[in-house]
Write a structure and sequence with these properties.
The protein contains 19 helices and seven strands. It is of the alpha/beta class. It has a five-stranded parallel β-sheet with strand order 4-1-5-6-7, sandwiched between helices. The chain has a two-stranded antiparallel sheet with strand order 2-3. Helix 10 packs antiparallel against helix 11 and helix 13 runs antiparallel to helix 14. The protein is globular, with a radius of gyration of 23 Å.
């Protein structure tokens, strides 16, 4: 720091709570009701964020320099230093754990003022508000103590990649850039669609996006968002068409390639003509464009698994699990594929720990208001509890997943096929056959 203040071209400004604050819920002593879990954010800064930032290389040479306003005793005006850091810093690291209002305010200022250079983190079991659930927040853990080094490396890697790729990370700037080219009426329809999504009214949102596209047919983002809603409703041909249009308008749209691959694979039938796209090519293009997209790796793993390429599928799932820091979806699929290959489910100490962490992640999503990623949060919890030997919880979560608002027949079928893969490996704990039959029946009446 010079006499004139920080050199913002090398600064990483840190937005996070100070001191000890409540973060999420945990079971008190393992048997008492749920209570607040407190995190020591000063220790997290000292042990994880500060050393990770200081070890992050700059593309032009040298390393990032951390800045947190309360850590600068020479600052005459904390507010001035804070806003300068938020606006001018080369990078901003934001920890949204605990849903601190000051953190969200400062993050909003950053997103409004900068297209790039923002990395968001959260503790694994912390809730995520519905309105920002679409914004990528990298999960980390700092307890037990052996997770600190892993968390430090995750932060360093994310910061280094952000500096190297210089991707647009601000949803505000992305939306503004998009809307500048839209007629006012199209902007109004898009806003109405987004409001309908917040009300969990996908049919109204679809109608509004279609109005917007009638006025702005060349907008790739609108086609992509409409495709996502058709996907949610299980309208795969319509979803595929929207993703194809988005790619035609924006050939390097990585997320559209990913979603096109998923849609193409859902539409593939056993009697489809030779040459019908399987989705594999689109997903390979997605990971080529964005090597950190664990969803694309996971989906590619699913296609390879169905094609019988189990070793390659296992590699994709394990890559996705590593990139995502142990997201339940690729983690559980990797566990099943290893079981299919080796003829047994490997519930060693390491996998038992990873499953417990995945369970905590999914519980946090279910406890969110509204719940996130249904029905998969329930289905993953069902599978985890199956491994942990709880028949009653397994069947309960199968039922919850089937009954969740918006669950479709293809989702029940997908989970059934997951369980049958375990069965083919000779794994059949109490309740699994009953759960498979529940899912089979649900496929018939879930549309």
């Amino acid at each position: 720091m010079s006499a004139n203040g920080p050199n913002y071209t090398t600064t990483c400004f840190v937005i996070m709570p100070f001191g000890k604050k409540p973060v999420g819920k945990r079971k008190l002593f393992g048997f008492l009701p749920w209570g607040d879990r407190f995190a020591d954010f000063d220790a997290i800064y000292r042990d994880i964020f500060q050393p990770a930032i200081e070890s992050t290389p700059l593309p032009e040479g040298g390393h990032l320099v951390p800045l947190r306003t309360d850590m600068n005793p020479a600052a005459a005006d904390i507010d001035v230093l804070m806003f300068r850091g938020i606006v001018y810093a080369r990078m901003v690291l934001s920890d949204i754990s605990g849903l601190n209002p000051n953190v969200f305010y400062e993050l909003g200022v950053r997103h409004h003022s900068n297209e790039t250079g923002t990395a968001i983190f959260r503790q694994t079991d912390g809730p995520v508000p519905f309105d920002i659930s679409h914004i990528k927040a990298i999960p980390y853990e700092y307890y037990p103590a052996e997770n600190i080094e892993r968390a430090r490396e995750t932060v360093r890697r994310v910061l280094a990649e952000s500096l190297r790729q210089n991707l647009v990370t601000s949803p505000i700037q992305r939306a503004i850039l998009n809307q500048r080219q839209m007629p006012d009426a199209a902007q109004d329809a898009m806003k109405a669609a987004e409001e309908a999504i917040r009300r969990q009214d996908p049919d109204s949102a679809i109608a509004e996006y279609e109005k917007a596209l009638a006025l702005a047919p060349g907008d790739a983002l609108l086609h992509f968002k409409l495709g996502l809603l058709h996907k949610y409703k299980g309208r795969w041909p319509e979803a595929r068409d929207q993703f194809e249009t988005a790619i035609r308008l924006a050939p390097d749209y990585a997320e559209a390639h990913r979603e096109l691959g998923i849609a193409q694979n859902k539409l593939l039938k056993s009697d489809s003509p030779a040459g019908t796209p399987t989705g594999e090519q689109a997903l390979r293009r997605a990971v080529e464009l964005n090597p950190r997209d664990f969803d694309a790796y996971s989906s590619l793993g699913g296609i390879l698994k169905r094609a019988g390429k189990l070793d390659e599928a296992l590699d994709r799932y394990e890559t996705a699990a590593e990139i995502s820091e142990g997201h339940p979806y690729p983690l559980l699929n990797a566990l099943k594929l290893r079981a299919a290959r080796d003829g047994r489910v490997d519930l060693n100490e390491s996998n038992t720990f990873r499953l417990a962490r995945a369970e905590r992640f999914r519980r946090a999503q279910i406890n969110n208001s509204p719940a996130i990623d249904l029905p998969w949060s329930y289905f993953d919890l069902a599978e985890i509890r199956l491994y942990q030997g709880s028949k009653d919880d397994f069947l309960k979560y199968v039922d919850e997943g089937i009954l969740a608002n918006g669950t479709r027949g293809w989702q029940a079928k997908s989970f059934r096929e997951t369980l049958e893969l375990l069965s083919s490996a000779g794994y059949g704990p109490p309740g699994m056959a009953e759960g498979i039959e529940k899912l089979r029946k649900a496929e018939a009446w879930l549309k």
